[in-house]
Design brief:
about 230 residues; alpha+beta; outer membrane lipoprotein receptor (LolB), chain A; about 35% strand; elongated; Lipoprotein; LolA/LolB/LppX
Amino acid sequence: MAANRKLLAVAVACTAVVGIAGCGGDGGDKDPFDGMSADKIADKASAASKGAGSYRMVGEFKEEGGKNHIDLAVSESGGCKGSMTSTSKGKAEILASGKDSYIKAGEDFWKAQTGSSTAGEIAKGRWVKSPGGSPCGQKDMFKNDNLNNLERKDDAEVDGKKTAVLTRKKGKETTTFYVAMEGKSYFLKVDNEGGDGAGTVTFSDYGKPVDVKAPPADQVVDPAKLGGGS
């Protein structure tokens, strides 16, 4: 179902904001990135973040008429589970396992998605299946394809942790990356301003196991039964 796939795609909108990888820092007052260019710091962070395997991402993005909030725990295998809350559509639970993704939401949500007044009744309390791969973006989240021409700014704190601040400007769009300066050089936060993907993503729980399993078959609804189109 096209509408379902578009919805799930929101969960990886931040992959356009990110582009990331990393290793360890020495901690203390010493700058672990002393002598490194901003691009090299980003490469280091990209490698570290990717190497952790699992992580949690919390993001807030602008949408027409409001905001879109995403909270996902991503497993090393590429599955994920969490929620998405949209100003216009309400809240939905998201789960992805293997090649399939699933959404559970209320009646208003499905009515907004499909245009069908009965869709919510059919899907009430059940998961709606969406074949076509995981929406989690585990393989693409920390790619460093676009991590170039960066400039390092003054250090800042993210949730009490000291970070190196790297910025990239492209036209009217400014993306800011925050890289941990203590422990492993994980990406802790990414801000995007002035572009189509305007929003903020924070990362945490690197390496923490995430158990994701597909829901039981009797709790899953075929999207074709909901009606509606795109």
